[in-house]
Amino acid sequence: MKKLMRASMLGSLIALNFAQATGMESKSATFDRVTIFQVALQCPAAPQIGCGSAAKPILLKLERDLVVREAWLNRTGTLIAVVWKSEVNSQTQQDFKSRLRGAGCCAKDTALKELQGEARDQALKELQSGHGWYRGAEVDRLSEEEAGVIAARLVRRVQAKTTMAQDKAERLERVLTDAYKKCFAEERYEETLPVREVVGDFLDEKQIAILKQGIEDGVRPLPNEN
Question: Which pTM does this prediction carry?
Fold first, then answer.
């Protein structure tokens, strides 16, 4: 219940912040002050969500621009919404496309698109609802979720090769999640996890070896994984 209340309050705050950011009451005027760009910022390790570590510096940099009031990423990492301080011309929007492309917001050889028509209207409604969009440092929550996805995947790899009690598996998932959260918070994305230090003495040597191999295989999902 407490988590539900916090989520509801957070959604209301995002919606309120967005409304205050535009400074306009009419829906049509609000729409004129927002541009939605289609991007490719999905997390390689958790493709169902946006990559917090990749998106955070981009969003913060966008908001330092004099013509931008706010910049938001949707949950799936496929859209960035730019809320302008005032109406902007097409040249300004084209300049932003170039910046986003240069920042790595689109896949190689893929054009950076601006949403139009019904797709844009739907994205704006979702943004104004206050659910599933993240601004600036808020994308750290996506990184924390990514840590949990990676930890669960590694535990399944260990379980596939050795017998492990459920309570031990749950404990392993918790400590791995905390370890990856710490790595992401300290921006140590490519650093090898110190397995023995992380798991302590509650795994035996065989299980430690399997876990190390699982990490060496990479945190991204393998062909037979989700």
Answer: 0.78
Tell me, what's the pLDDT at 170?
A: 96
Q: How far apart (Å, rounded) are the C-alpha atoms in residues 1 and 208? A: 38
Q: Which of 118, 136, 154 is the C-terminal boundary of a domain?
A: 136
Give the amino acid at 8: S
Cα-based torsion angle of the residue sequence 125, 141, 185, 17 in order, rounded to the nearest 10 degrees: 50
Please tell me which residue, 157 or 91, carries the higher pLDDT value: 157
Residues linked to residue 133 through DSSP beta bridges, in sequence order: 74
pLDDT in tens, 80-114: 999 988 777 777 777 777 777 666 566 554 557 88
* Statement to judge: residues 129 and 174 lie in one domain: no
Please count the structural domains in the chain: 2
Burial state string for 187-205 with b = 16 or more CB within 10 A and e = fewer than 16: eeeeeebebeebbeeebee
**89/112 Cα distance (integer angstroms):** 18
First to last CA, the chain: 29
60 and 70 Cβ atoms separated by less than 8 Å: no
pLDDT tops 60 at residue 117: yes
* Reduced DSSP (H G I as helix, E B as strand, rest coil) percent helix, strand, coil of the chain, to 5: 55, 10, 35
Domain that holds residue 92: 2-136
Average pLDDT for the chain:
82
Please give the Cα distance from 48 to 33 (Å, whole number): 29
Written as one string, the DSSP assignment of 75-139 is: TTSSEEEEEESS---HHHHHHHHHHHHHTT-S-TT---EE--HHHHHHHHHHHHHTSSEEEGGGG
